[in-house]
Amino acid sequence: MRRLVHALPVAYAAGALYLAHCALASLQHGAPPYTAGLAACSLLLLASAAHHYLSRAEVRIAVAQLEIAARPFTTAQDTAVARLMTTPCCEAWWSAVGGEHQCTRKDQTT
Ligand SMILES: [Zn+2]
Question: 90 alpha carbon to ligand 1 midpoint, in Å?
Answer without folding.
Answer: 4
